[in-house]
Specification:
The complex is a heterotrimer of chains A (271), B (394) and C (87).
Chain A (H helix, E strand, L loop, with lengths): L7 E5 L3 H6 L11 E3 L5 H14 L7 E7 H6 L2 H10 L3 E7 L25 E2 L2 E2 L8 H7 L4 E6 L3 H11 L6 E6 L3 H4 L6 H10 L6 E4 L2 E5 L10 H5 L7 H4 L3 H19 L5
Parallel strand pairs in A: 1-2, 1-3, 3-4, 4-8, 7-8
Antiparallel strand pairs in A: 5-6, 7-9, 9-10
Helix pairs in contact in A: 2-4
Chain B lengths: L1 E5 H11 L4 E4 L6 H12 L6 E4 L3 H13 L4 E5 L1 H16 L5 E6 L13 H4 L7 E4 L3 H18 L3 E6 L7 E5 L3 H7 L16 E2 L8 H30 L7 E4 L6 E5 L3 H14 L4 E6 L1 E3 L3 H8 L4 E6 L9 H9 L8 E6 L9 H13 L5 E3 L4 H7 L5
Helix pairs in contact in B: 1-2, 1-6, 3-4, 6-8, 9-12, 10-11
Chain C lengths: L7 E2 L15 E5 L9 H5 L5 E5 L2 E4 L9 H5 L5 E5 L4
Antiparallel strand pairs in C: 2-5, 3-4
The chains are: A alpha/beta (271), B alpha/beta (394), C alpha+beta (87).
The complex binds thiamine diphosphate (TPP), iron/sulfur cluster (SF4) (2 copies) and magnesium ion.
The site of thiamine diphosphate (TPP) has 18 residues of chain A, from helix 1, strand 3 and helix 3.
Chain lengths: 271, 394, 87
């Protein structure tokens, strides 16, 4: 968040970020910061933005809303859609760790297919999460947002650049940051950033920018960085069942096919 | 200036005179005419405010929360299902000590779906940490909004102004509309005690664990108790400025030497006054105690106002299902440990817009005078409807 | 603004929390083969890594939680994770 500078006001959702940073009477936040509820940071940020306007203080601060994937794609979807539709000058940042981490890693609308969560366990009748990951950037694009980008903690410089760039646009902006959740994904903390990079370099998590509905930039995967999805899946306990039960290979194949399709669709391979 | 106005329009004009900077609401019958009125005032350039069109009440409440936290005077309005949808945010606004003002155009809650008046909506949210005031007529509703902003901003507690749907929101009455300069003199511009700004960053809405949560709730509870003084002061200051008075936390009507005191809130009081006039003419010692403020609950004042009566009948348009009228239970609590307790009975009336007539009130009063046994009654039931609505399986 | 009603909290008050006790491992920056790629500096989740020279880095033991991300990423294996000494 340093990228945004000190002149910001942040509206946060309930989730890991909020709970860890603000236990009374302490706070990590150096900037004005408000947390209201799980599902309303988009609306609270809207209120902040209009209040700044109404009070003639719009130059005082940029307004940023922050939430997890659950807070954004599921329970806060209506409020988020309203914020986008009204065209508020707000940067909305979604921290996508692909589940409800704060409550112990339950499934969200951004949980990828076949991933285990505590509410989508695997067993003889299930391969984990049965549905595919919701294409949230496309939904945001359909609202006509000014700027949309995906990014990842695998490449912090990319996040910084995109926050800065986003803030140069007027109107609603959306940044979705892929963040591994160490306990939820079942990985060693040491490899979390490497896992985030594998998600990108396998094609599973395309990193791109959109301006006014058109893709303007994608993060290309260098030939030497390209990995198969298994490099990404195998170290994660949430995909361990794919290696344990017969038939898992088919699922892994399907995941590889999805990654290949992304590579094709977004033109992710560097020449 | 005296004008004939619809209740909602009169309230919209009064709210506009309070110069809110952010207005955000979602339409629901019977609140709609208020927010439509405000939208018109903004469009005509008569109210300099941001009017935000949201996708649901949940967001309406969240927007005024954000706006208030940023230092803007913020207003919203709703009814019934809308209020219930807002519930989570309503508690949050109070917990964050944001001085938002909201009108509740009282309406029944679903199911069965019903758009007509009763007070089950706001009464079921009485414990959310908002000051709750109930207006008897359109003039009081208008004036109550002006007082509400001063009370909220003085105490950093949000205020809900409750007015009966249709009966007050849709009725036409002559209303004394104050001059803008008088309202400005009474209600100065909002000076927030804290607000979000990079110039002096604060953290709002942090988590509090078992080590601090109770203390923070206690601070709100204590402020709520102190609100009694502020409400009384504002009632006096308002009377000095505008010459109109409605009582402070309570009001009364022909209560002197009454053997039977009827208690209620909201527009029902008008009907009750007519009934009491007729009863007094017939020589029956009946009076009225009016509850203006349900939160903070005026416990000692109610005790003092009712203690000399032999019988108390609490007539209200809400019900705690499985118990009795909500106000009645609370009034009973005012007599806990008292030396002398009147016989207190609960009468639930007028749910879902069921008409309550002068005769209904007289029946209740005469019934209590002839038999003062404490009881709980859901009054005005049509037994034919009741029988036809439900048949037990053999 | 002062603390108020228990709801207004001062910013930046967690800095004084030390994380020393959380660690099982601690990174040791060997400062031998470093190529100055900056991966450790940029990816440390706690901002504990600091730069001494173009190809010389170390970690602030008051801020480091010993997660091992820096050691995992270092392309030239110039960071070791070692068992924290028991106090
Ligand atoms: C209305 C409501 N329902 C449920 C919860 C419980 N809850 C708090 S955070 C959370 C999940 C958060 O998931 P996400 O938005 O992905 O954020 P993360 O914790 O993963 O960062 C849930 C279910 C809540 N606080 N409020
Ligand atoms: S071990 Fe983790 S916290 Fe410590 S310096 Fe390395 S990356 Fe930072
Ligand atoms: S990751 Fe390794 S090579 Fe890169 S800067 Fe850090 S110590 Fe040097
Ligand atoms: Mg999440």
């Amino acid at each position: 968040m340093e990228a945004a500078g000190p002149d910001v006001i942040i509206a946060n959702a309930t989730g890991c970020l909020e709970v860890f940073t603000t236990r009374f009477p302490r706070s990590s936040w150096q900037v004005p910061w408000i947390h209201s509820l799980f599902e309303n940071p988009a609306s609270v940020a809207s209120g902040i933005e209009v209040a700044l306007k109404a009070l003639g203080r719009e130059d005082e601060a940029k307004v940023i809303a922050q939430a997890g994937d659950g807070g954004t794609a599921d329970i806060g979807m209506g409020a988020f859609s309203g914020m986008l539709e009204r065209g508020h000058n707000i940067l909305y940042v979604c921290y996508d760790n692909e589940a409800y981490s704060n409550t112990g890693f339950q499934r969200s609308g951004l949980t990828p297919k076949d991933a285990l969560t505590t509410t989508s366990p695997a067993g003889p009748t299930s391969w984990g999460n049965l549905t595919r990951k919701k294409d949230l950037p496309a939904i945001v694009a359909a609202h006509g947002a000014a700027y949309i980008a995906t990014s990842s903690v695998g490449y912090p410089v990319d996040i910084t650049r995109k926050v800065k760039k986003a803030l140069t646009f007027t109107g609603p902006k959306y940044l979705q940051i892929h963040c591994p959740c160490v306990p939820g994904w079942g990985i060693e903390s040491a490899i979390s950033v490497r896992m985030a990079r594998y998600a990108i370099n396998s094609g599973l998590y395309p990193i791109f920018e959109m301006e006014y509905g058109k893709i303007t930039k994608v993060r290309k995967i260098k030939k030497e960085d390209l990995v198969g999805v298994e490099e990404y899946l195998k170290p994660q306990k949430r995909f361990a069942h794919l290696y344990k039960y017969p038939g898992g290979e088919e699922h892994i194949k399907a995941i590889q096919a999805a990654a290949d399709a992304n590579i094709e669709k977004y033109g992710l391979l560097a020449e | 200036m005296r004008r004939i106005l619809e209740g909602s329009q009169a309230v919209a004009e009064s709210v506009a005179m309070c110069r809110p900077k952010v207005v955000c609401a979602y339409p629901i019958t019977p609140q709609t005419h208020i927010v439509e009125g405000l939208a018109r005032l903004v469009a005509e350039g008569r109210l300099d405010a941001q009017y935000v069109l949201v996708e649901a009440e949940f967001s309406a409440a969240s927007v005024v929360l954000g706006a208030s936290a940023t230092g803007a005077r913020a207003y919203t309005a709703t009814s019934s299902q809308g209020l219930l949808l807002m519930t989570e945010v309503i508690f949050n606004i109070a917990g964050m000590r944001l001085p938002v003002v909201m009108t509740v155009a009282n309406r029944a809650v679903s199911a069965p779906i019903n758009i007509w008046n009763d007070q089950q909506d706001s009464m079921s949210l009485r414990d959310c940490g908002w000051i709750q005031m109930y207006a008897e007529d359109i003039q009081e509703a208008c004036d109550m909004h002006i007082q509400a902003f001063t009370i909220a901003e003085e105490l950093n507690i949000p205020v809900m102004v409750c007015m009966d749907g249709y009966i007050l929101t849709h009725a036409m009455e002559p209303v004394e509309v104050p001059e803008q300069e008088h309202v400005d003199a009474y209600l100065p511009p909002f000076k927030p005690k804290f607000y979000l700004t990079p110039k002096d960053p604060i953290t709002l809405g942090s988590m509090a664990g078992p080590d601090a949560y109770m203390e923070i709730r206690l601070l709100l509870h204590q402020s709520m108790q102190r609100a009694s003084f502020t409400i009384r002061e504002e009632a006096n200051r308002f009377e000095e400025a505008f010459g109109r008075s409605y009582g402070d936390l309570l009001g009364s009507y022909r209560a002197e030497d009454a053997e039977l005191l009827l208690v209620s809130m909201g527009s029902l009081l008008g009907t009750m006054k007519d009934a009491v006039d007729e009863l007094r003419d017939g020589g029956h010692p009946v009076g009225i105690v009016k509850v203006r403020t349900v939160r903070p609950f005026p416990r000692t004042q109610l005790h003092d106002a009712l203690a000399d009566a032999r019988i108390v009948g609490v007539i209200e348009k809400d019900i705690s299902l499985g118990l009795e009228g909500i106000l009645c239970s609370e009034i009973r609590s005012a007599f806990c440990g008292a030396a002398r307790t009147p016989n207190i009975s609960s009468f639930v009336v007028g749910l879902g817009g069921r008409d309550v007539t002068v005769d209904n009130i007289k029946d209740i009063a005469l019934g209590l005078l002839s038999d003062d046994t404490c009881r709980v009654e859901v009054a005005g039931i049509d037994h034919e409807v009741l029988w036809s609505a439900h048949s037990e399986e053999e | 603004m002062k603390p108020m009603f228990g709801v207004v909290v001062q910013p930046g008050t967690t800095r004084d929390q030390k994380k020393t006790g959380w660690r099982i491992y601690r990174p040791r920056f060997k400062q031998k083969d470093c190529i100055g790629c900056l991966d450790c500096l940029r990816s440390c989740p706690d901002g504990a890594v600091y730069q001494i020279d173009k190809k010389k880095f170390d970690s602030d033991m008051d801020a480091c939680k010993g997660c091992g991300v820096c050691a995992d990423l270092c392309p030239v294996d110039d960071i070791d994770m070692e068992l924290e000494e028991q106090q």
